[in-house]
Amino acid sequence: MVVRREVLRGQVWFDCPTICVEDSADLLALHLPPDAEFGFPDHGAFPCGRHGSAPAIVRPPCGPDRLAAAPPAGDAG
After folding, report:
1. Is residue 12 domain-resident?
2. What is the Cα gyration radius of the chain?
3. What does the alpha-carbon distance between residue 28 and residue 72 come to, in Å, rounded to a whole number?
């Protein structure tokens, strides 16, 4: 079990338990179980403003049977 933490401006703003599927020099693959509980800080302010204040970002569907992947930065494909 690995706790994945999202850090923004030096502060953890989100975390969730994941299972490491592969950890190699070229790939880190984590599985997020369907019943995983997300964690958010008990205090402090979200560094980029109130949640929900920004327009929604449209992303491809994802879920337990889907995978969303992006090439590494600087990789044209």
Report:
1. yes
2. 15
3. 12
- Secondary structure of residue 59 in the 3-state scheme: coil
Q: Which two tokens stand for residue 62?
A: 């994802």
Contact 1, 18 (CB under 8 A): yes
CB burial class (10 A; 0-12, 13-18, 19+) of residue 66?
exposed
Could you report the per-residue pLDDT of 14-69, keeping only the tens digit for each?
A: 888 999 999 999 999 999 988 888 887 776 665 555 555 444 444 555 555 555 55
Among residues 16, 17, 7, 18, which one has the least CA distance to residue 46?
Answer: 7
In terms of residue numbers, what domain contains 11? Answer: 1-64
